[in-house]
């Protein structure tokens, strides 16, 4: 009789562990995003020489920074949408070549087209980590003073392009 009473807490613990495991292995998009943070305070090496900072932004306007790599299949898949976004907002879309070589990055952009106003290098991946990158591709919208306004994890879809486009077009004080 007393054995089944002892099984109740064990059963509850097993059910709780199973539910916790399920929730951790199936996060909703955005569950791990941080809000109200600034762009990395670092000078990135530019693909074509020199350095570039994203806080404050290089052109004094709100910009989108897309982290990509030539070895990233979703980066290739999102490229037409990224190109359309850059055409709609000239000079406001920047690229970070993440954990890749300049030669591979140039080849990738020669084949698909270069939508970026400028491209910086992140060969070690530390710059991506400073942004809060979880995996390429990801896009960050940064205000003129360096505040991250939007963080799109994963490839841009139609809804994300609209969201980023609205943020780029919005007047900022």
Short structural summary:
The chain is 40% helix and 20% strand.
Characterise the protein shown here.
The chain is of the alpha/beta class and 173 residues long. The protein has one domain: Glutaredoxin, CATH 3.40.30.10. It contains 5 helices and 8 strands, in the order H-E-E-E-E-H-E-H-E-H-E-E-H. The strands form 2 sheets. It has a 6-stranded mixed β-sheet with strand order 1-8-7-4-5-6. It has a two-stranded antiparallel sheet with strand order 2-3. Strand 4 (63-68), helix 2 and strand 5 (93-98) form a beta-alpha-beta unit. It is found in: Cell envelope. GO terms for molecular function: oxidoreductase activity.
Topology record:
Blueprint: H1 2-25, E1 37-38, E2 44-45, E3 51-52, E4 63-68, H2 73-88, E5 93-98, H3 102-112, E6 119-122, H4 126-131, E7 138-142, E8 147-153, H5 158-169
Parallel strand pairs: 4-5, 5-6
Antiparallel strand pairs: 1-8, 2-3, 4-7, 7-8
Helix pairs in contact: 2-5
> What is the tally of beta strands?
8
Radius of gyration: 21 Å
Global geometry = elongated
Report the CATH topology name.
Glutaredoxin
Order of helices and strands: HEEEEHEHEHEEH
